[in-house]
Amino acid sequence: MIDLAEAKTRLADEGYCILEGLLNPDEAERLDALARPLMPYRSGYVKLEGALNHIPGLAPLCMHPAVLEIAEHFLGKEFYLPNNVCLMWCQPGAPAGGLHSDWPLGLVPQPWPRWPFLIQTLWMLTDFTPENGATHVVPGSHLSGRPPAPNLQYSHERPAVGTKGSVLIWQGGTWHANGANTTTSQHRMGANLGYVPWFVHRPPDAWPLLRRELYEQFPERLQQLLKRSVEP
Ligand SMILES: O=C(O)CCC(=O)C(=O)O
Fold it and tell me: Can you tell me the distance from the alpha carbon of 155 to that of 157, in angstroms, rounded to the nearest whole number?
């Protein structure tokens, strides 16, 4: 059973948490198999924005009750999805990314406030292991009120590992990056969704808008979450 109280405490204190087994592993595998052929490159670390337009089966991830409860706890009653699922594929041999905090904090004067502007989720469509490029996080870094110093190593940086079907959740201020995929054959696929409070608006043209005809078929709760990110 998932202990949401514990997850909220971890997210508040350490800046991240992992919820195990939210999605059936077979469904995670199915979504991974749909995702791979869509990706624009066959090597390295590759992203695809607007993936819900191509894989409507990602919709349940966007409105999973456990994730929405956590988002509401940190963001308040009214929050939105500014993008519509970014696939993040870390292929064998891909190098580690650089540690960073997430949009929109780059626009906010430092020191950043303690309350989050973004709750990020990364659904593990494959296992996330230290070898295949599991996201690295720096626990507690969201409390620093600033981004990481360039090119510094942080000794408490650690990989956020989990089995397929789990979800990694972090505060936008938590320093993080994809790990290096040091394997020759193990792929790592994640599906990323970020939730923002009502007062944060997506930058115009930043990410593909959701196709209107798909939006019309989604449940009302998902329509509410996506209403600022749908085609006119
Ligand atoms: O793919 C990952 O593990 C990290 C993703 C990331 O850095 C981000 O979403 O900002």
Answer: 6
